[in-house]
Design brief:
By secondary structure, chain A is of the alpha+beta class. Helices cover 28% and strands 40% of the residues of chain A. Chain A has a single domain (2-85), classed as Alpha-Beta Plaits (2-Layer Sandwich). Chains A and B meet through β1, α1, β2, β3 and β4 of A and β1, α1, β2, β3 and β4 of B. β4 (79-93) of chain A pairs antiparallel with β2 of chain B, so a sheet runs across the interface.
Chain lengths: 103, 103
């Protein structure tokens, strides 16, 4: 298991656009077990991403996918700060069911 | 939607015990949509928790549940630092399915 907690800051007013790019690029990636995108309530330009992957390799492989490769330069135009806050080994998810339900 | 990203540090050697307490107390809580517990790879005494709740009320209500109330004093004995790193509004989870599968 491999995980990351990432904090991104974007130019003022660009958070929703950045979230849209994340939604397009990070949907149903192979080996991705959780990818929670959240707005920071203390900073209207900040986004948190909590990622859970089967392995570091599944994460690294995702970077070569066309949807991800296409998103990176679009996102880069919006981002003012990118911080890999933590690299983790996820061990558990207490939730009873998927969020959102698998479709 | 309501979320938090929390970082906990425990006394040396107590991380697995703390994770066990979290697993006992935070399983299938009402209104909890995701509760990812992860070990920090950069600090062997640190744990990250990424929480997603239907509402702030569902989070607050969980604190009154017997399993949670029983866990708090046990956890407090192990914790050296508790940091609410961010309060968030979660907006999206890109994973295709539950982790772990609902049971």
């Amino acid at each position: 298991m491999f995980g990351m907690i990432v904090r991104i800051e974007v130019y003022p007013g660009k958070r929703d656009e950045m979230i849209g790019i994340l939604e397009e690029s990070a949907r149903n990636l192979a080996g991705c077990l959780s990818y929670v995108v959240a707005k920071d309530e203390g900073n209207e330009d900040a986004i948190w991403i909590t990622e859970v992957w089967e392995s570091a390799k599944s994460h690294d492989d995702s970077l070569a996918l066309p949807a991800v490769k296409a998103a990176v330069p679009r996102g880069r135009l919006l981002v003012t700060r990118f911080e890999k806050v933590a690299v983790t080994t996820p061990v558990w998810n207490g939730a009873a069911s998927a969020w959102p339900p698998a479709s």
